[in-house]
Amino acid sequence: IREGGDVDQQLIDKTLIHLREFEENAGQSTSKPPDKKAEEKTKEPASKEDLQAQEDKIKPEAVDPQNGKSPESVENKIQEEVQWDDEEEGEEIAYLLHLKFDSKMLRKGSDPILLIKELAELGDLDMIPHLGGLPDLKNHDPEDIHLWWSAKLVTSRPAEEIENILVFFQDDKNEVKFEPAESPPEDPGLASHGIYDEPEEKEQEQKEGEKTKSESESKEVEEPEKGITTEPDSSDAEQQSLSDQQSQELTPVKETKKKTTESKTTQSIRVTVERLDKLQNLVGETVINQARLHLLSDKIMEIDVKLGEMLEQFVEDNEKSVQELQDQILQVRMIPVGSILNNMKRTVRDYATKSKKKIRLEIEGGDTELDKTVTEQLQGPLVHLVRNSMDHGIEDSEMRIKNGKDPTGTISLRASQQEGYVIVEIEDDGKGIDAKVIFDSAVKKGFINDTDELSEDEIYKLLFLPGFTTTTEVTDVSGRGVGMDTVKRDIEALLGTIEISSELNKGTNTKLKLPLTLAIIEGMMIDVGHQVFTIPLLSVNESLRPVPKQIKKIKDKGELVEIRGEYIPLLRLYERLKLKPRYKEPTEGLVVVVQHANRKQCLFVDEIVDQGPVVIKSMEDNFIQVPGIAGATILGDGRISFILDVASLVN
Q: How far is CA 274 from CA 281, 371, 372, in A?
C-alpha cells in the first residue's frame, strides 16, 4: 500500500473472509454456557481466561491456506510499513526568517533570489516583502536592493540545512537570521472555566478512569458463582454497592484533576514593544506629575497648614503606588541577557573555522535580566569585544602548546547583577595585553610623548582612542583602528562604563557595567549658577563641604580635595559649563564626589536641591548630542534639567 508495488487482491479477499470469521466466532463460547438465571442477573462479560481460550482456538482457523500467514501477521506487516514511512517523513516544523540584505549585494555578484529558491526547496515557503525602502522612480537604481523580506518556512528538514544555506549571507552588512516559530499559548481563561482540558491531563484522567473501571469490573467478576446462585436476591445489592464504590473512586480523580488544572493555569498575553514603550512613557509622565504634586503640597502648606497636611498625606500614599507602578513596568521590560550572549556562539564558530584556531565559548549568568533597550544596544559592542578576544587574544594551537596551555582557547561571557547594575565580563585565556607595545604604538602615532609617565590602567585607556591599533595587517576583523572607540562611546551612551585588565601570557578581562534601565533613574538634583542639573545617583559616592585645609593646589595641574587621606581632583562645574556661580570657593558651596569606573572626581556645586526618580529624555533624539550631557528631564515646576554625563566629566 502507498505505491509499494502490485497488490495481491486474492490474498486481501481471503484475509478479509478470515477476519469476518474471527469477528463472528469471537462472541461465541466453546465451553458450557453458564446458568441462564445467573447470566440474566449478573450480565457479566466473559473472564480474561475464557477470552484468551477463545482466541487460541480461533487463531488456527484464520491462517491463509496458500502461504500459511495469519491475518494478524499481514496486518502487523502493513502497520510496520506505514510506521516506517511516517518516520521517514519526519515532523514538520515552522521557522520564521528575516532576510535583509546589503543594498550593494547585486554589485558583488550575489543574488537573493537564488537564496529564496534554495529555501523553497526545503518545504512550504511564504514570503512577505517589505516595500518601505523603495525610492521614487527618478532615484531608483536597478543595481541596488531596496526590498527586504519576512518569511515562514514549514519543513521536515533539520535546522542545520537551513543554517547551511544562510551561513554564506550572514555578515555585518546582511541581517539574515531564522528562529523556530512559537505558537501563541492557548487561552488559559478557557481552561479555568473547564471549556477545554490540557491534553496530558485529559489522557491522565482517561487512564485513571479506565484503571478504576477495570478494577471494579475485575472485582465483580471474581465473585464466586456459588454466591450468586445461592443468594439470588443479593445481586441488586451487590451491584448497587459496586456502583457506589466506583463512583467514590472516580470522584477523587475529578477533584484531583480540577485542582491540577487550577494550579497549572497561567495567564499570559503577547504585547508589542511599541505598546510597552508607550506605557513606559505614560509611567514617566506619572513620575513627573508626582514631582509636581510634591511642589504643590509645599506651596499649599505655606498657605493652609491643615489642608497642606491632608494633601501631603495623599501625595505620600500616591508616591507608593507610583513607585510600585514604576517597578512593575521595569520588570515587564526586562529580558534575559542570554538572548544576545547565545548569539556569540555562531560568531566564535565562524571565526574559529576561518582562522583555524580552536576556541571554546563558555556562557554564565544568561538568565540575568536587563532592560530590552539596553540589551538591544549592547549587541554591537559585545560582538566587537568578542572578536577582539579571538583575534588579538587567543593564540593558535601550536603557540598555546608551546606556552604550556590547552590547545583550545577559552572565551568566557559572564553576566551578573550588582547594586543596581548589570556586570557583563568578556574574559579570555590568551596572550594578554603588552603595555609596552601599546605605549610604543601610541608614541609612534603621536597620541602621547615618549617622556610621558602613564600607569598601566592609563595605558589600557589608550586603546579607546580613535584610530589606535597595534595590528599591522588590515583584516575584516581588525587593523583599521575603528571599533574600540565606538564601543566606548556606545557603552557610555548607555550610562555604563568599560574597564580593561590584563596579565601578559595569562589573558584579558573586559568588564562592562550597565544600568538596569535607561527610562527612569534615581537622580540627585544640584544647583549651579541658578540652573538645576541632575547627577545619576548610582554615580554619587558622597557630598560634603570641605574646610580650607582640605583644598590643595598643584601648579599647572589644578586642585585636589583631601578626603580621609585620599586626594581627589576637583572640577569646578561652573567653569566647565560657563555659568556664573553663587559661590566661587569650595568652602562656601558643596563638593559632590562621583565615581566612574575606578576614577573619582569632586564636583563643586552651589547646593543640592533634591533627590528622586527622574525620567530620561534623549538629547540626540530630540535635539543634538551635547558633550558632557547624557540627556534631560522635566522637573516638578516644569523646568528642564540636564542630566550630566559623569563619564565625560571624569575623563
A: 11, 14, 12
What is the model's pTM?
A: 0.55
Calpha distance 151→95 (Å, rounded):
8
Q: Give the amino acid at 116.
A: I
- Residue 359's φ and ψ, nearest 5 degrees, are -130, 135
- For the chain, 651 residues long, the average pLDDT of each consecutive 10-residue run is 58 82 65 45 47 48 46 49 44 86 80 85 87 77 84 87 80 82 52 42 51 49 41 45 47 47 63 87 90 90 90 91 89 88 88 89 91 88 90 89 91 88 92 90 87 86 82 58 78 87 91 86 92 92 93 86 93 91 92 88 94 85 79 88 87 71
The span from the CA of 435 to the CA of 501, in Å, is: 11
The answer for residues whose C-beta is within 8 angstroms of residue 371's C-beta and 6 or more apart is 330, 333, 334, 335, 516, 517, 518, 519
Annotate 6-53 with DSSP letters as a single string. Answer: ---HHHHHHHHHHHHHHHHHHT--SS----HHHHHHH-PPPPHHHHHH
Q: Say how far apart CA 427 and CA 413 lie, in whole Å.
A: 7
Element housing 390 (H / E): none
C-alpha cell of residue 546: 570641605
List the grid coordinates of 54: 477463545
Identify the CA nearest to 618 among candidates 579, 593, 645, 599. Answer: 645
Q: Which of 597, 604, 606, 613 is nearest to 646 (CA)?
A: 597
SS (H, E, C) 529-592: CCEEEEEEHHHEEEEECCCHHHEEEECCCEEEEEECCEEEEEEEHHHHHCCCCCCCCCCCCEEE
Residue-wise burial string across 63-84, b where 16 or more C-beta atoms lie within 10 A, e elsewhere:
ebeeeeebbeebeeeeeeeeee
Which among 285, 302, 422, 295 has a CA at the least distance from the CA of 366?
422
Burial 614-648 (b: 16+ CB within 10 A, else e): bbbbebeeeeeeeeebbbbbbbbeeeebbbbbbbe
Q: How far is CA 334 from the centre of its chain?
A: 9
User: What secondary structure does DSSP assign to 306-355, as a single string?
Assistant: HHHHHHHHHHHHHHHHHHHHHHHHHHHHEEETHHHHTTHHHHHHHHHHHH
* Angle separating helix axes 9-26 and 48-58, nearest 10 degrees: 150
